[in-house]
């Protein structure tokens, strides 16, 4: 008969993997180190596979351990989701939702949606992770993120993630107020300046990279920022130029420090998608939050909006 894995063994394994040590997992789970060690040993013996490499200062996953971790962490998240769904269907609207946001979504679409959601569901905790899709793949796969709203660049994730297009944004070239480049009208006129961009990994900035690859000359991007906010700060407080969402030109928080340069060249628009695992079963409150994002996205279609269309 096949080895029957027990839930306490899965919890022990996942936490030891996350903490990198028996001691760290012991603190988090509030279990003794001998009890955790026993659970891991039983799991490895039952599966006839070594899951951890023991080091002098902790443990690391073996190749088998890495594979098992992907499944085990998803099992725990699915169980948590199932428990919360039952409670929510019984009218007890508590629990937790973890979502990922592209940086410009965090600055524009997200605040009114989260404020409205918290009014409707004050007992639900919301965790927000900001960044590009590529930085969220692991948590999406493991069920630690319920969904993300982000830009997407075609690639290896098509088969495992579901994509629903919500809206588009226009982007523009920006500099600080008073920059000598403000009078320029072409990207060619800006090539002598230094540029900064957010990282191009698998997002809108990958599209820009391809656009510039087809030009005879391209901006000298000497600084790549891992966060959107650091890119904005660098442009606002130095002579660097960048390509950022056009809406920043009217933002109450930053427009007094940034100037939009009306270059003749058409820049690609950025499409934003609701992205989740294809097999994801959202809880009622997570589905409510998704619908709020859908409705807020549709409001961006008003005539003065910078968003041009939805699907």
UniProtKB/TrEMBL annotation:
GO CC list: cytosol
Acetylation in keyword set: no
Database matches in PROSITE patterns: HTH_LYSR
Keywords on record: DNA-binding, Transcription, Transcription regulation
Domain HTH lysR-type: 5-62
Gene Ontology terms for molecular function: DNA binding; DNA-binding transcription factor activity
Superkingdom: Bacteria
Pfam families noted in UniProt: HTH_1 (PF00126), LysR_substrate (PF03466)
Family of this protein: Belongs to the LysR transcriptional regulatory family.
Name the record gives this protein: Transcriptional regulator
